[in-house]
Every structure is written in structure tokens, then in C-alpha cells.
Amino acid sequence: MKKILFSTVALLSLMGAAHAEDLKEFRIGLIGGENEADRLRNHQCLVEKLPAVLGVEKVSLFPAADYDGVIQGLLGGTLDFAELGASGFAKIYLAKQDAVQPILTTVQTDGSKGYYSIMVARKDSGITKLEDLKGKKLGFADPDSTSGYLVPLVSLPKDIGMPVKEFFAETGFGGGHENLVLEVLKGTFDAGTTFGSGVGEFKTGYTSGNLKKMVDKGILNMDDLVELWRSPMIPNGPLVVRTSLNDEMKAKFKQFMMDLPKSDPSCFAAIEGGDFQSFTEVNTDFYAPIIEARKATVGG
User: Fold this and answer.
1) Residue 14 has what pLDDT?
2) Is 240 helix (H, G, I), strand (E, B) or coil?
3) In this structure, are residues 245 and 54 in contact, taking their beta carbons and an 8 Å threshold?
4) Which residues make Cβ contacts (< 8 Å) with residue 296, sequence separation at least 6?
5) 200-213 burial, b if ≥16 CB within 10 A, otherwise e?
6) Which site from 74, 118, 126, 208 is most exposed, i.e. has the minimal number of CB atoms within 10 Å?
7) How far apart are CA 259 and CA 194, in angstroms?
8) Inter-residue contact 78 to 47 (CB < 8 Å)
9) How far apart are CA 36 and CA 3, in angstroms?
10) What is the pLDDT of residue 224?
11) Which CATH architecture group holds 25-109+236-298?
12) Could you tell me which of 190, 199, 198 has the C-alpha nearest to residue 225?
């Protein structure tokens, strides 16, 4: 499989590509936070299936080094589709309201349309509760991550009784969810914030989310971690399409994705990284609380 790499600069250089009415290539952005080879492999089924569905010559995958690479590609009109976290969508919406349209989100196996920010520490650290982290170092996943940064920033103060910067001696970023957990295991951070469905058992990494993906890949043993804190439920992130795509292509793509859990369960599981029930329709209103939280907390 041919790898296609990109940076924000490379994405922006693609500006001026074909208009929607004569689109020959459908461009999919893959947010950072997981090993690049894994992201490419997990989405290969879309590369194989979508050309016939959409009537394009090819489908290309663009794995970004971080969340912002895909965000800038969507803002610049150089990507046609991506699956984002709610905070990433909020960043795009606050910068350019008509850049993308949220069309679908995932439904958990229990029927819920949300997930959780989950704070973990090494089990052998002696840290067993949130209070034990006073004066220690906390790792976040990515500045544009909902569960890995925005929601903890908003929700943690209610549980620790003070702003995050006053409670912890230091905070930092792990460079995406997967790497953040690995850095916690290495001792770079005393604890870190990642995400999971909260459905099922902690010992298996729950039914979906970063912990589950790491367990399934054999790079994480949940016996090495302890859960310290869980956020309120967060809206599952949206699948978004470029607004300027023609309506027929949007409709075909949306229907293909809606059908995917039944038409190709293995492809659905691969691109979503865990066990989910289905997709369901959403619009911008579903993300209004996250948009307001981002606007109030970190700006655009």
C-alpha cells in the first residue's frame, strides 16, 4: 500500500484543487494520535470501496502528525472528509462556520452517543485517587483534543477545587492519545488524560476508545494502569464533509457510511477502532455545548 504523507503546509499547497462538480479524488484526513501505519491500514477499506460509490478516480488518505493538520486541511478546503473530536470541530466552526458540515456520529454498544475523558496513572505509582496528584505532573493528549484537553480543563477544577495550573506542579502534551499513555507508562507524566467509551470493563480497555485500541494492538496491558478520574459524558465526535462538495456526492457518501456497520462490519470496526453499534445523524446543534466551552476556555 502506497503511503501518502502530508503536513499542514502540504495540505495548504493543494488549495485550488478540482471543484466539487468535477472532483476526481476524494481526500480523507486522518487526525494524529495513533501510529501512522495503523491509521492507513485501518482506513484502507475506504480507499477500496469509495471510488465506485462516489464516482471518483481515487480516494486518498492524508494522515496528519497532529489534530491541527486535519483541521487546517478542512479549513483550507483541501480535504473532503474527516472524523473529528468535538473540540476539533468546534475549532473549525469558530474559525469558519461554513467550512464543514457534521453529518454523522457513532453510537456506543449501549445506545449512547457519548464517551468519556479518562485519567490514568501507572498502577505501581502508588497514586490511587485524584487527590494524590496534588503537586505532580499531568499529561494531556493534544491541544485540540476534546477528551485529552478541553473537557479536563473545564471539568477537573470542579473536582479538585481549584484551577488545573494551581493543583498540578506541571502540565504538558503527550503528542496524541496513544503516545500520551505510553509517556505515562514511561513515567514522563504522573497521570494523563485519554478517552474510552466507559462501557464494559476497564480491564479490557472498555468497548472502544484509545485504551481499547492500544490493548487490541498488544501495546498496552490494562493491569499496568489505574483509572483516577472520569469526566461527564462527551458528545461523540462528528464525521464531517466539506460543505462545498456537491449535494449528490454528500448524499452518496452519507448513505454509504450509514450502511457500513451492516454492509461491512470489519471495515466499520477498523475505522472506528472498537465496538460500536452504528452511526446516527447529527448537526451542529449537537456540539453547541462543546463549541461554547472551547470559545470560553481556549478561544478559537
Assistant:
1) 47
2) strand
3) no
4) none
5) bebeebbbbbbbbb
6) 126
7) 29
8) no
9) 9
10) 98
11) 3-Layer(aba) Sandwich (3.40)
12) 190
**Over the Cα atoms of the chain, what is R_g?**
19
> Which residues in the chain land under pLDDT 50?
1-21
Give ranges for CATH 3.40.190.10 in the chain. 25-109+236-298, 114-234
Find cell 499529561 and name the residue.
139
Tell me what pLDDT residue 8 has: 42
CATH number, domain 114-234: 3.40.190.10
Amino acid 202: pLDDT: 97
CA 262 to chain centre: 23
- Among all chains, which residue has been given the C-alpha cell 490494562? 222
Q: Whose CA is closest to 220, among 250, 254, 180, 176? A: 180
Closest by alpha carbon to 287, among 111, 151, 149, 158? 151
List the grid coordinates of 272.
Answer: 472506528
Neighbours of 64 (CB within 10 A): 27
Among positive and negative, which fits the CA dihedral 75, 78, 81, 87?
A: negative
Helix axis angle for 265-272 and 247-263, nearest 10°, is 110
Report which of 176, 115, 124 is spatially closest to residue 145, judged by C-alpha positions: 176
The whole-number pLDDT of residue 261 equals 98
